# Entry
Amino acid sequence: MIRPIAFSSLLLLAPAALADPAQDYGEHCATCHGETRLGGSGPALIPETLGRMRGPDLEAVIAEGRGATQMEGFADRLTPEDIAALAGWLEQPLDTVPDWTEAEIAETREMNPDYVPTDAPVFGGDPMNITLVVETGDHHVSVLDGDSFDVLDRFETPFAVHGGPKFSPDGRFVFIMSRDGWVQKYDIWTLQEVGRARAGLNSRNIALSKDGRHLAVANYLPMTLTILATDDLSVERVVPVVSLGGETSRVSAVYQAPERNSFILALKDAPEIWEVMTDPDAPPIEEGDAEERGLIRRGPPEEGLFARRRIEIAEPLDDFFFTPDYRFLIGAARDGGRGVVVNLNVGREVAELPLPGMPHLGSGISWMRDGRRVMATPHLQEARLSVIDTQDWSVLRTIDTAGPGFFLRSHENSPYFWADVFFGPNKDAVHVIDKESLEIVRTLRPVPDATAAHVEFTRDGRHALLSIWEDEGAVIVYDAETLEEIRRLPMRKPSGKYNVWNKITFSEGTSH
Ligand code: HEC
# Structure
């Protein structure tokens, strides 16, 4: 019995110096953030979600809280040492991650008892020209009429929306996902929430199937793809993500490939791309080349709904841009300096191109220029854009910008594309670039020193909506041709904006 004695004598010697973060957590935090740290009325507190909020930043939130939220400060109850220990403890990964089985997901499903469907929109405008604005400042979405720019509704989302909301193919419903894996379904016609369910514990993004019946959720925790039925958010399938080599992998993103009637998955930890069929009549999938298949059969081929095909690649790829026919994708190599082109039909890498400075391919857009399809991508770590010829996969032009950017946007009816400068001293600048000459025609600085980022067009392409990405921010409406400012709508840190029509028609000017 040596240990208990040593422990209690230590306690007697220095009681105040002994911070016990697990106990402090249980006492002060668990009611809102969950006994398991996986969230409750407050968000999950695990390194995967805390992300870049570490050390002093994390301690400051615990000490001071977050204004105008349930999160109050604890400086009056916990010493700075306790808070530092608690912050350090929250930065440690969980010992065990729950499986998050179908039954556990089903348990979280809450349908709104007050939801009543209608036969027509409850508002007068064009339901196909609605633009949703995600306001990350206070976790709301504003529903904007794209003609009058009136806000028709403003509803609360789960904490920290992540990835773009996705519309049903008829544009009536929208699905919104939070970093903690909650999926919220909202009816744009009735301006009401339909329900929500927690599909993952830490999730990246969602995609809808071509027919709109299935919704896939890319998860980091656990390492699965969750597929929900879109009508009632019930669980259809939880697919464990295990590579050919037997390693589990996080899913960095899932994409709808409408031309292929499938989902495409980027795997974070395995040199594979997965394709999951959303066609109930999908033919049997033969993986690898015919000769090798004869030698090593990996079990019977999968077929039908959710049949899975693996595309083996040299190294994990992330952040995909797809050509509009969905024959090719470009993914970013992990070293951040190359793009790798994969032909999805034959299932192999076909080209590689130099894209130094972390290309953000997922934000890439494409258009026809001189009879050839080009695509453009920003770079997260370099002050330039790359314009790529998608016929021979050469870099056609690099355009110098005022700083590294995050998003690009255009529209079929606009001669310009818009590129933000997201990082560095010029984060208040947005370049408007001619799609033919590839010259910057105007640099807008709507609010000095405030981040200006992410553009979305109205359905007809006549107006461009730009975010002032600040807590007391705004959405600024521009005439997309004259570049004159038309309206300024106050918003709480508006991030992405999503126009129903541009999204459901897979407009080439926007990423999907
Ligand atoms: C009464 C409920 C409640 C209690 C108790 C509580 N929190 Fe919170 N906490 C919240 C809510 C709600 C948020 C989200 C605030 C917002 O909207 O930014 C939050 C946010 C946070 C965040 C920021 C998370 C992020 O990803 O941005 C941290 C860190 C945090 N809480 C830590 C703690 C710690 C540590 C304790 C215990 C000492 C604690 N909280 C106690 C409700 C609570």
User: Anything to note?
Assistant: The two ends are 62 Å apart (CA to CA).
